[in-house]
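User: tokens in, sequence out, please.
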């Protein structure tokens, strides 16, 4: 048993002062007033804030590793280790549009990665079933239609949570419904779809929208587009890249004013330069360069980010002017709910996994725990 005390606690919904968190093994067993803390190994955190660890559902890479180039369990573990230093205790390694054999290899790697690192929660397949008109940095030659064999491979992935970004104007509602019935977390993105097409996909079971505003149809006078659908419909979750490069801060503030906050997820869309990697890398044979904190291809197309989740939280609080509790929830409780893992992650509550982040007063990471093990105790 270990008893964590001496820091303010955010349990996922509310702040608690003068309390302690009791951890036994990999799980939290209690939150108690400090005066009622049990005997055990007392750990004084010496101030700061103890919160649920961050969960990132869109991570292409980090620490110099790109999942597309290293679709192995070891590659996933290295990406997770790099982001753990920035408070991320759970992530979906994200494969952008690639050849079918690479996709198959990545799914197998995500299955095996769960033995190497508990931070790997499954896989996010961002493509290849996208709209070429909104391909962004995705390679056009690999974008294709969804076939029955693809559905079978995706629903049979057996690697934890499976998130699939697809274009609702390129994939029929019957396929969306079939994927959703089998537990696939369908997210809508990289598409010039109309509001009606996006709405139909949500009605069929689509659960989210991928990186709001980026690579999707925007509202016009008489057509709301995908952005309008993402903000108008109550239930879908919405990923946002809060880095000051992908979306103007005013647009994010407008979006946050338009929809309930418990449906927004902070994501990084991180690439190899994030979390300590070099400033240049190759993306499917194309050079990507980081200049002034922004990643671009040679044709100036945005190509992911160098963002980490702790930076996203600070941006949400300091620039978007979100309440701290909302920003922390968007980095933890909301994505856990999206993944249907809310009874294990995203909250400091009895029975939940002890996957935590300790922050200083400026919201920089002091330490993380993943399933009860502190940073230093993880490989």
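Assistant: Sequence out:
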């Amino acid at each position: 048993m270990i008893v964590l005390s001496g820091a303010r606690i955010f349990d996922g919904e509310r702040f608690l002062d003068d309390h302690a968190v009791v951890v036994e093994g990999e799980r939290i067993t209690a939150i108690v007033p400090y005066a009622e803390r049990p005997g055990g190994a007392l750990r004084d955190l010496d101030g700061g804030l103890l919160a649920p660890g961050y969960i990132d559902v869109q991570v292409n890479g980090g620490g110099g590793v790109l999942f597309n180039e290293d679709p192995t369990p070891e590659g996933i573990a290295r990406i997770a280790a790099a982001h753990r230093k920035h408070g991320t205790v759970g992530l979906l390694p994200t494969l952008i549009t690639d050849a079918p054999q690479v996709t198959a290899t990545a799914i197998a790697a995500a299955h095996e990665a769960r033995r190497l690192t508990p931070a790997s929660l499954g896989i996010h397949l961002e493509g290849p079933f996208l709209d070429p008109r909104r391909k962004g940095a995705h390679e056009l030659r690999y974008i294709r239609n969804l076939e029955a064999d693809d559905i079978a491979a995706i629903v049979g992935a057996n690697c934890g949570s499976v998130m699939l970004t697809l274009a609702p104007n390129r994939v029929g509602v019957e396929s969306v419904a079939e994927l959703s019935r089998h537990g696939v977390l369908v997210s809508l993105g990289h598409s010039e779809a109309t509001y009606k097409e996006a709405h139909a996909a949500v009605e069929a079971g689509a659960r989210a929208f991928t990186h709001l505003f980026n690579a999707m149809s925007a509202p016009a006078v008489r057509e709301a587009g995908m952005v309008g659908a993402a903000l108008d419909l109550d239930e879908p979750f919405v990923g946002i890249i809060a880095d000051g490069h992908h979306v103007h801060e005013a647009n994010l503030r407008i979006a946050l004013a338009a929809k309930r906050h418990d449906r927004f997820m902070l994501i990084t869309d991180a690439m190899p330069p994030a979390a300590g990697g070099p400033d240049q890398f190759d993306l499917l044979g194309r050079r990507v360069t980081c200049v002034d904190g922004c990643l671009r291809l040679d044709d100036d197309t945005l190509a992911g980010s160098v963002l980490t989740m702790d930076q996203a939280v600070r941006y949400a609080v300091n620039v978007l002017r979100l309440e701290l509790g909302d920003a922390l929830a968007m980095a933890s409780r909301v994505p856990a709910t999206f993944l249907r893992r809310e009874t294990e992650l995203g909250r400091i509550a009895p029975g939940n996994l002890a996957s935590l982040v300790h922050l200083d007063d400026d919201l920089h990471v002091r330490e993380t725990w993943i399933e009860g093990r502190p940073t230093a105790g993880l490989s």
